[in-house]
Specification:
With 206 residues, the chain is an all-alpha fold. The protein contains eight helices and no strands.
Length: 206
């Protein structure tokens, strides 16, 4: 009888122990869950990023922080690799653009030299043309002076001189004379000379 009594007592004590532990669990766990839930609601309403805050707090814990640093050192992120690749690509593009700029600057320099050369040649041609015009103007003025001289001379003196010239020069002088002066000069020439030069004047006028 004592044995059964002891057994029943042990069972009762075990059951009481289990009930006591469960009660303690309910007393501690439920308020804790409630407090965490309330805290999450308060943080959310206050605009606090709970996830980022948790990461920040976990980073301050030495063990977790050392693990995170170890992972970062041992395994470079893919984002870093992408950034490095983009930097290399941009550097290559910059080098190519610099080469293109150098090439364009060379073309511009060559074009500028060609323009300067063409401008110098233009100036030289303009100078030569002006000199030629001056020379022609001087020749025309000199020829006018010669015609004026022959017109002021007496026909008896100018006629022998003109007949001694070649036909081309003689005709050029005679065509520049006034009609009245030309008739007087031809009258002072021999018949042969007058006929020949008159024929030349007629051919030139026609």
């Amino acid at each position: 009888m004592r044995k059964k009594s002891n057994e029943s007592t042990g069972l009762e004590e075990l059951e009481e122990s289990k009930i006591s532990k469960f009660q303690w669990f309910l007393v501690i766990f439920i308020p804790l869950v409630f407090a965490v839930t309330v805290a999450l609601i308060v943080f959310t309403v206050a605009g606090v990023d709970v996830v980022e805050k948790a990461k920040e707090m976990s980073g301050k814990i030495p063990f977790i922080e050392s693990n995170q640093n170890g992972e970062e050192k041992g395994n470079p992120s893919k984002n870093d690799e992408k950034v490095l690749m983009k930097l290399e690509k941009l550097e290559t593009e910059i080098e190519n653009k610099e080469k293109e700029i150098d090439k364009l600057e060379g073309i511009i320099d060559t074009r500028d030299k060609a323009i300067e050369k063409a401008e110098a040649e233009k100036q030289q041609l303009q100078t030569e043309m002006n000199l030629l015009k001056d020379s022609q103007n001087g020749s025309k003025q000199a020829f006018k002076d010669i015609i004026r001289t022959y017109e002021t001379m007496a026909p008896k003196k100018s006629a022998p001189i003109i007949t001694e010239m070649n036909d081309e020069d003689a005709v050029e002088i005679l065509t520049s004379m006034k009609a009245a002066t030309l008739a007087k000069v031809l009258e002072q020439m021999t018949t042969v000379d007058a006929a020949r030069l008159t024929k030349k004047l007629t051919e030139q006028s026609s």
